[in-house]
Automatic annotation (TrEMBL):
It comes from the Bacteria. Belongs to the bacterial solute-binding protein 9 family. GO terms for cellular component: cell envelope. This is Metal ABC transporter substrate-binding protein.
Length: 317
């Protein structure tokens, strides 16, 4: 799949395209005189749209059976520089609530919702934000706050509040679901920290393509090193690759990783130039298909921790 660049000219093109699509959708809706049922079936529950699959799973946990929760982007999509389709805009116009991560994760979102008369809520509101420390993005918030399960306790509480406003009759159920999920999140956090704590001090370096693991690395006491800060880049410069190679050599890093939504080619260059092995694919910006390795957010966290520990200790064989 071709990767999208979000350099300035690209952003302008993308913004124009979204504006053109929004105009076409508005015209179509005006011609139709009304909106059609969101999904053309008998399901009359309110529809909540999330920007990506990880949020969809978390939101569904909080919603229980009372709301229909769907993701705008599909499994495996690159979400930072995503370009919405006319179909996405039609779905959004028919939704009852839209949830986005915020923290500049969805570069396309402000333009996307500009012409829509649908409420939207930023689910990361209130988390303790970490800043990006390198690259052109230095000083901006690191958007991947969900990689700490304790932050997702905040996400779940925000969702419960938003759902209570949307559907007050089930407000108690949303609060109870969020509380129960919060307990699970705490348990998974404790499990991850304990598992990653088994790594020897000298093997606590986590080298990835994207700088998406800052929150997990902080929780688990790992040193994080990445090729690029945010996946919107996706074109590693020779300097970025050289920097990763130098770090891997200097620290005798046994294994390096890349994420499911980007090409691992740049990291394979690091593998070829050093003694490090390719440790496997980590999931951050998307779940897998239902039959894949990470069909839920909690499984995503466990999969990543298992993959990291096995590769850095060589216990995968
Ligand atoms: Zn990302």
């Amino acid at each position: 799949m071709p990767k999208r660049s979000t350099d300035a000219p690209g952003r302008r093109r993308s913004a124009r395209a979204v504006a053109a699509i929004a105009g076409a959708v508005a015209a179509a809706l005006a011609l139709a005189g009304c909106s059609v049922a969101a999904n053309g079936d008998d399901d009359d529950r309110p529809v909540v749209l999330t920007t990506f699959t990880v949020l969809q799973d978390i939101a569904q946990e909080v919603a229980g059976e009372h709301l229909r929760v769907e993701s705008i982007t599909k499994v495996g999509a690159e979400i930072h520089g995503y370009e919405p389709t006319p179909g996405d805009l039609r779905r959004a116009a028919d939704a009852d609530l839209i949830l986005d991560n915020g923290l500049n994760l969805e570069a396309w979102f402000a333009q996307f919702v500009e012409g829509l008369d649908v409420p939207h809520v930023v689910v990361s509101e209130g988390v303790e934000v970490m800043s990006i420390t390198e690259d052109a993005y230095a000083g901006l918030p690191n958007p991947h706050a969900w990689m700490s399960p304790l932050n997702v306790q905040v996400y779940a509480a925000n969702m419960a509040d938003a759902f209570a406003e949307l559907d007050p009759d089930n407000a108690e159920a949303y609060a109870a679901n969020a509380a129960a999920y919060s307990d699970e999140l705490r348990a998974v956090h404790d499990e991850l920290v304990a598992e990653l704590a088994t790594l020897p001090e000298a093997e606590r370096a986590l080298v990835t393509c994207e700088g998406a693991f800052s929150y997990l690395a902080r929780d688990a006491g790992l040193t994080e090193r990445y090729i690029w800060a945010v996946n919107a880049e996706q074109q590693a410069t020779p300097q970025q690759i050289a920097g990763a190679i130098e770090f891997v050599r200097d620290n005798d890093v046994p294994a390096v990783f890349c994420e499911s939504t980007v090409s691992d080619k740049p990291m394979q260059q690091v593998v070829e130039a050093t003694d490090a092995a390719f440790g496997g694919t980590l999931y951050v910006d998307s779940l897998s298909e239902p039959g894949g390795p990470v069909p839920t957010y909690l499984e995503l966290l466990r999969h990543d921790a298992d993959t990291i520990v096995q590769a850095l200790t060589g216990s995968a064989g």
